[in-house]
Amino acid sequence: MVVVKPHDLLQIASLKELFGNDLPVWATAVFPQSLTVVVRRSPILNNQIPVGIRGQKREQRFATYINRTAIQKIITPYDLVKNKVWNDLSEDRKELPAIMALPEVAKILQTYHWGVSGSVGFELATKVKTAKLSSDLDLVWQPDTSLSKNEAKFLLKKLNQFGVHVDLQVIRGNNGFSLEEYANSKSTIMVKTLRDPILVNDPWL
What we know:
By secondary structure, this protein is an alpha+beta fold. The chain has helices at 25-34, 77-82, 91-94, 97-100, 102-108, 118-126, 149-159, 179-184; strands at 9-11, 36-39, 48-54, 61-67, 73-75, 114-116, 137-141, 166-172, 175-178, 189-191, 198-200.
């Protein structure tokens, strides 16, 4: 069985693979350029995978489902880093702050199992221009060990020295939490799960 996880990008053949016919106008205009959906953090039921369509504007997000058999290709955030896909972009796209920072971020995280998500990851995978001058650099990281809050602050300080805000999400199984929120928390922090977000004292447990 094909295994997919939240943040994975799935390429499909056409709009017909999406459940329902109530797509917003922007989706029917933009989506055929990429034919790529993003796996949402939600349960997979009856082989129906929860996915989202991403538009070129921040507010353009649409939640839907596809059948597992509709998947033609899976691109993980980690694949984008392994293949250094940012080198394949045009020179003008490489000048965007969030993309320009990637080679330096890669040096800092060279011993980490990390990937690129969000608008930058989507553009790296599809070449559709979804990243902007104001885009954050959204990253995911599957850790082998936990970090203290001081270690987390030190890592974030190094990552945020390139003129773009780096949002690093720590992935534990199907759950995820913000390293920045953890580093700055005084009590509980939010962990996203396949069901509902929960508040925990120690997200590493």
